[in-house]
Amino acid sequence: MTGLTQYFYLIPLIPLLAFWVLIFWGSRMKEKSAYISIAAAISSFLLSVPCILATMKGQTLSLEWTWLYFGTQPVKVGIMVDSLSAMMLFVVTFIGSLIQIYSVGYMHGAPRFSRFFAYLSLFFFSMLTIVLADNLMLIFVGWELVGLCSYLLISFEYERIAAAKAGMKAFVVNRIGDVGFLLGILSLFWLFGTFQYKPLTEQIMSWKGASLAIPAMLLFCGAMGKSAQFPLHVWLPDAMEGPTPVSALIHAATMVAAGVYMVARMFFLFQSSVEAMQLVSYIGCFTAFMAATIALTQNDIKKVLAYSTLSQLGYMVMAVGVGGYAAGPFHLMTHAFFKALLFLGAGSVIHGTGTQDLRQMGGLLKKMPFTAWTFIMAFVAIAGVPPFAGFWSKDEILLSTFNSAVPGHTLMFWVGLFTEALTAFYMSRLLFMTFFGEQRDTSIHPHESPKVMTVPLMILAFFSLTAGLPGTPMAHHWLQGWLHQSFHYLPVHEIHLNYAIMSGSIILAFSGIGLAYLMYYKKSISAARVAAYMGPLYTLSLNKWYWDEIFELCIIKPFLWSTTILYAFDVWVVDGLVNACGYMVRGLSFLNYVFDKYVVDGLVELNGWIVEKSSRIARLVQTGLIQNYILLLVAGFALILWYTVLQNIGSSPFGQ
Amino acid sequence: MIIPLNHILVLAALLFCIGLYGALTRRNAVGILMSIELMLTAANINLVAFSRFVTPNTGAGQVFAIFVMTLAAAAVAVGLAIVICIYRNHRTISADKIHLMKW
Amino acid sequence: MMEQFNNIAPWEWVQLISFYAIAAMMVLGALFVVTMKNIFHAALSLAVVAMGAAVVYLMLDAEFLGFVQIMVYVGAVITLIAFVVMLTQRANQSGDNKATNHQKFISFVSVGTVLALLLWKIPNASWLTTVTNAELANAHTIGNALLTDYLLPFEAVSVLLLAVLIGAIVLSRREKPAKDDGGAE
User: Fold this and answer.
1) Number of domains in chain C
2) ipTM of this predicted complex?
3) N or C: lower Cβ tally within 10 Å for chain A?
4) Which residues in chain B are closer than 8 Å to A622, comparing Cβ atoms?
5) Does C100 reach chain A within 8 Å, measured CB to CB?
6) Ramachandran bin of A210, using left for φ above 0, alpha for ψ from -120 to 50, beta for the remaining angles
7) What range defines the domain where residue C56 resides?
8) CB of B24 within 8 Å of any CB in chain A?
9) What's the pLDDT tens digit per position in A188-203?
């Protein structure tokens, strides 16, 4: 490591410093506090650039220290940068910085402004910890911290009870996943004696023992929680209660991607067990499909985007689950750009119109041009229109699924393909309802957002369109090659283009767009009639497949019942025992008292009584008559005399 | 000395015990003092007898006897003074009526 | 005990007989002292005993002591006792005047025990007697001894006598406001 790269440990520490400063002195700085946070973010980005360049040259940066001693064995932890981390570094710091700049405009005038940026800086620190960690323990630390930041930021406007509840829900559901995650980490430590990736990679790649499915599945629990996979997906839609920059940064681009990143990091573990791969890919596939169906019918702009995020995350997880270790992260990167852009654009719309309901929007193309055009660019990316970013990454995923060795991959392929059509459809619906046509609600007066908000949109738009290019065949799959440095333990994967799949996905994308065009632009097909035709399927989709209600009934209610029972147990049995003990003690102390009073005191009094009575008798000796005393003397003398004489019979000095 | 020593000692012993008996039983305070004199006389006889038989030259026993005599006289003097005091205060000199030190 | 009575000259018989007589008189007198109801008679008996003691001293070649005994004991002590008897006779006239008190029996027993022991042991004891032809102790010897070997006791006794003198006077002084009717003057 030379030059600037040797300071790569500062990358997470500078935002941490910004957090400390803003937490203590932020309220005094008010709106100027944003500059500190943005400066920290940008410096992290600038410090990352040399590191990224270094990995492109094939270097790996690392720093290691001993954390504690397990008996005599040292447990080492550290940080490192290789190609996968470098890609994540780029995504997190670059998009993060842009979102922070955007927030200056969006959060203008909000109460606790400085605290918002403090939390953002804390989030930066935590996310960068996850990305830079070279061991499971440190990633877990960062994992928990991003969970905390998520909670803090979702419930930022905690005066609204919905926001507060959403924050709690996010944290609790995340924690459930983290239990499994921690168990997985500990089981791996127990088996292999180390937390670090490199030793684990070496040991597991040459592992001939029992199946490692259980540790892998436990680790995946953490990914399910963090990346909102089924069944721990319920928190993500509710997390939209937070401010839009938060949704963009955390719940679209970076935090939720941490799960995918972790699975990619531990890919050597997952690929050793078919059962683990199956679990991962099935859950990913199902999440993608389910979320896409729900997104079809939502009327809140942020909710549509939330379910879209869920769906895309499902794709990423499925990709890694079927063995596409490069496809997943590739999609992660492109998705980060266009999803962040979509959210920021939605935020701009909300900021400009004051509403989140699609049914009240329309015709915003002319009123908010910058927002609209950047939004369109993001849209073409996500819909899978070539040659834009989303097309390439999604195609990679479909290709990996098709060529995968995981059982059931064919079904997953078809589901993925169908979901792509759904994705195109609901995104187009969103686009048309928001920006095109006539303004449905004439009471709102939309206006364009300030430059501090539109410039980041434009930068992100550029990257949404172009971020996919490094992974394309034209670039000779440079990105996948670069990423392979992190997967060096696997043989190099030759990518054969399957033009059938490519054309199929293009056809489906355009048909989705076309159908939405007809329904929402031209209005030749009535949306209401289609909904009535779908009947129960429509209701199911509109109500998010009732998952929240199911969890409420099956998990939360029984839990609350058990607390009531335990409370009763505590009050009656435990407290009863304690009280019984108390009564017993009182009874025993009463016996003690009786004993003390009659026996102990009695003995003492007996002593006194004896002394008194005996002295009463003894004093009779003192008659006052001296002759009595002399008599006693003489009598005693006589006794002693006789005693002595009798003793000394036979030894008299005077003879007999 | 034709009188055997033992006989004189027997005499003295008898006198002593009689005097002792008197000291214990006489009710009259002066009677008690007289009994004490009797005991002292007996002791004197003992001393002089031994002086004659054991140390006839130095007369140590006789000197001792002189001292005893002196002290006996002193004791009687003070004792009788006390008796007179008691007679004055209590109008009685009966030993068993004077029990001020009774409990 | 009877062996020693084999070679006795006539005048020695006189000595012996008179000794036993005197002894008997003394013992009798002593008994009277302790048993007489009349105190004055008891005092006179004591005088008899004292005289007998003086004779015994004379028989024991302690002439000085014998005369001193008569002078001091009989002449002073008995006299003094007689005086006090007379002074306190009013107390003796009243009521029941038993000579002895209630502890007669037990004291008889105790004293009898002591006497029994003494009478058992003394007759058969052999003492370290010495027979000497040198001069027997006399007044000269006693006087010398008093002022040379026994000087300290001599001086001490003189101080004691002083104390007794003062004490007796103080004790028998008439209290100032006290009015005695008959008797103690």
Assistant:
1) 2
2) 0.92
3) C
4) 101-103
5) no
6) beta
7) 9-90
8) yes
9) 988 888 888 888 888 8
